[in-house]
Amino acid sequence: MQIKYLSAPTASGKTYALLQTLKHGGRYIIATPRRAISREIAALLLKAGFAVKLIVGPDDKNGNDTDTYKDCGKAFRDAIKANCYEVIIIDHKVALKKVSGVENYDIYIDEIPSIVETIPLGTTLPATRTVISTLFPDGNISDSHLYYDLEYTKEIADLFTAWDEDEAFRPGKNLFEIGQSLKSGDHKVVIRGSQLQTYQRSLETETEEVRRLKLKFHKVLQPEILEKYRSVTVMGANFDNSEMYVGWCGKVVFAENTEMKRYLRSLPDHKKGLVDILYLSEAHDTWASLEKLGYQEFLDRLARAYEVSFPNTKHIFAVKRAKDKCGRPAEPYRWLHEDSELGLRLDPSSKGVNGLQHINVALHLVPINPSTYEYNFRKEYFGMTADDVKWAISYESQYQFASRTSYRDYESRSQVTIIVLDRNSAFALHKLFGEASAGEPKFFDIGIEELRSEKKKPLTDIERQAKSRRGKRIKENETTTNAFQYPDFRIREWKRIESHDPVEISCNWTEFVHLMWKNSRTLQIKSKIARPLYREGYFVDPASHTLAKNIQTSKLIQMDIDKATCDPKELSKFLLKNNLSHLIVSSFSSEPTNPRFHLLIPLSRAVCGDDYEAIFNLIRADIIQKFGGEAFEIEKAFKSFNKRLCMPCVSNYNGEIFIDGTLRNKMTWKSSFLDVERYLNRIQIEDDRPGIALRQRRSEKTDISTSAIDRVIAKLAVPPGMGKGNDNFYQAGVELKKLGCLYEEVIRILEDNRHKFGRGKDRDSLRVAEDIFNRNRRNVPSRFRFKEPTIDAKSVFTPTSEMKTALTLDSFFYPG
To answer: Which residues touch 145 (CB under 8 Å, ≥6 apart)?
Structure first.
């Protein structure tokens, strides 16, 4: 499926390009976000002689308007059936639903619609419990599923039908919306697996926690709703930064609408350098920081400073919506110039709002940041980075708001001033406005000390003490390791999760393997909650059931692998080849086609927490280097030995796995364990980074053409003296990654073209690639870190034979 786009900045003539593209006798649908825009386009088309059908909903401000429809969806379907209109104009909500009979229509979507909506659902409602129990009748909610895509089953259909027929009961608005979304198929409805697990556990144990919980469902718009149209074009500014582009790029082919693009007009000379951008702080862009500062006090101080710098100047402004502690609407935050009619309050985004071309100042004072939950959803479901989310949501909203001013007027020569909260937002807008920007953004001082840029302060007594404590930690680790050594293995077992009386046994490796084998064959449990747990290590207080501050050292690396696309036997062969004794045993949820298991690796001596984490990270990196990041997904939480592992048991799905990978000395027949000293002193750069599998194999996309790469470089190239070389160099790396270029390719391309970005000498292609691919060094105790030599970007992928030898796993273990 192909979707065309027109990435048109403000005042570039997007509507004009649309009117020039439409031809008499054709069949077109135009979707807009606002009624005013629909009416404006309809008037222009009628004037041009087109047969137009305008379909808009009732306007609350004009109750006597007879040209509106209560059911716009039905009016749209009727207009399609009539087949007598050249152009049908509808809103986004109507357009983004499946409709039959549109095969001969080209659809143009004005402004980029959102593709994600979060629907919260209270957990105390009986209806919620009924829906969850219907979706998961066996109560088996797997911890290996990051998100569940819900399906409209017969059982769910019967449930909602019964509710429709029962006049005494009607589901709430949000629950009804979830049901309608499942039924229509226009959206995917997904929910995080861990949320369902928490909800399920709370039902069984803690009633009070259930009252506090809210399940968060995500409606994700699917591109298939547009596949019946003859062609689809989306028009909007900065399309390649949008959520739609990032979220759908793996499902559809995006192509620029070249026919419309030729009608766009470039920025005229008289508008270049007209936009001044000011920022109020270095980093106060979150609600937490503004709330701590005192948001109303901040607004009052800004309003007084504004009056001094811009006396009697009309402006638009956006402030945060006020809510009480329960999240209900509260008395709005005041703006001192609103009553004088100098200030006009707008929505923080205001996408598509017109009629404000006489205003030259915009103040965007709302921290637009998705919650941690929303950010994690976009990161995990769409693969968006933190930078992607910031550009798609925060910076785009501020750009749309700022563009409501006289900057939209193509003929205007008025100076425009934009005031935003923080420096990063200001420089993002500086980049988006391009040649219209009047130099780099400047700090606007409103007299609040906390907002001013400050030099680094000397350490306080408390900070110096903290630094000293960190310095002593290495010595303490060594002391702990030496003090808490012990023979054999110490296994502490808890019969249930909530058990407070663990049992501790001492056994050698052979006895431990037999214990694991016996449990995997004979221990049968009804649910995950009933599973016993265990942890190997030295506990200073045998009477205490806790782990934190109780366990001092451990001799057993415990890994949890909840998703595997590769045969566990291949993992075992790899470990044996590298002289690693190990044990692989299936977990409760293991299936024949979807193995889930625990990997246990014995150590030559007990290690402290920092050393345990370092060894865990090294082994995990070795596995990723060999098999790629998706073959065996190792749960990172187990890098701490303050975490218990479930005891092996009979698989609930006939997916038993038991692999005894014990290595023995051929002379003494003693078990051979991982040598801690040699392993900790390995010099290895960990490949524990998102997308590492891409380094080893080309993605499923087709090969990237040289012309596509050349277009990216040409688009962002900057001549010396323009002052944007570094920013554009970084953005070129981002665009190359979006094209599908791999880590190595981004470095090579940037290195070959760095002379095209300013003077080019200080452009660091390796650092750009490291940043956009989220590549960070591993966090290991300082005494095990080694200073790595500086490697030139051109030679980073051609290690010497000595380096290859140093990176070989075999050289770090005693022969088995």
So the answer is: 193
Sequence-distant (6+) residues with CB within 8 A of 41 are: 15, 18, 30, 32, 89, 110
Residue 814: the pLDDT is: 29
- 640 contacts: CB under 8 Å, gap ≥ 6: 609, 612, 613
Alpha helices in 264-312 (DSSP H): 287-293, 295-309
Whether 212 contacts 177, CB under 8 Å: no
Q: How is residue 216 written in tokens?
A: 């968060």
Cα-based distances in Å from 680 to 172, 607, 782, 786, 791 = 57, 11, 12, 11, 23
pLDDT given for residue 209 in this prediction: 60
Secondary structure element (H or E) that encloses residue 463, with its range? helix 461-483
Considering only CA atoms, which of 140, 538, 150, 111 is closest in space to residue 351? Answer: 111
- Cβ neighbours of residue 370 under 8 Å, at least 6 residues apart? 378, 389, 393
pLDDT tens, residue by residue, 569-626: 999 999 998 889 999 999 888 888 889 999 999 999 999 888 899 899 889 988 988 8
d(CA 626, CA 610): 25
Where would I find the H helices in 662-807? 676-680, 693-696, 706-716, 725-739, 743-753, 765-772, 801-806
* Separation in Å, CA 177 to CA 71, 96, 160, 171, 216: 17, 15, 11, 9, 13
Report the distance separating Cα 442 and Cα 280, nearest Å. Answer: 9
Report the range of poorest mean pLDDT among 21-30, 427-436, 464-473, 663-672: 464-473
Segments in 140-229 forming alpha helices (H) = 154-165, 173-184, 193-204, 207-212
Q: Is 416 left (phi over 0), alpha (psi -120 to 50) or beta?
A: beta
H or E element in which residue 495 lies? none
Q: Give per-residue pLDDT as tens, 485-521.
A: 999 999 999 988 888 888 999 999 999 999 999 999 9
Phi, psi values for residue 545, rounded to 5°: -90, -5
Encoded tokens for 58 = 């009732």
Contact residues for 614 (Cβ-Cβ < 8 A; gap 6+): 680, 778, 780, 781, 784
- Distances 770 to 467, 528, 619, 692 between C-alpha atoms, Å: 28, 40, 22, 12
User: Could you give the residue ranges of the DSSP H alpha helices within 310-458?
Assistant: 372-377, 386-389, 396-402, 423-433
Question: Which residues sit opposite 553 in a β-bridge?
Answer: 538
How far apart are the C-alpha atoms of 446 and 310, rounded to whole Å? 13
* 311 burial level (CB within 10 Å; 0-12, 13-18, 19+): exposed
Distance CA 642, CA 130 (A): 37
| Region of residue 488 (phi > 0: left; psi between -120 and 50: alpha; otherwise: beta) | left
CA gap 502, 516 in Å, rounded: 17
* Residues 742 and 660: beta-carbon distance below 8 Å: no
Of 374, 151, 349, 111, the closest CA to residue 244 belongs to 111
pTM: 0.55
Q: Whole-angstrom Cα distance, residue 598 to residue 583?
A: 8
Paired tokens of 812:
């770090």
Separation between Cα atoms, residue 565 and residue 420, nearest integer Å: 47
| Alpha-carbon span 632 to 645, nearest angstrom | 18
Helix (H, G, I), strand (E, B) or coil at 72: helix
Tell me the sheet residues that pair with 437. 275
Label residue 49 left, alpha or beta by phi (over 0 means left) and psi (-120 to 50 means alpha).
left
Helix and strand numbers, DSSP H then E, in the chain? 28, 29
Closest CA to 519 of 536, 533, 509, 507: 533
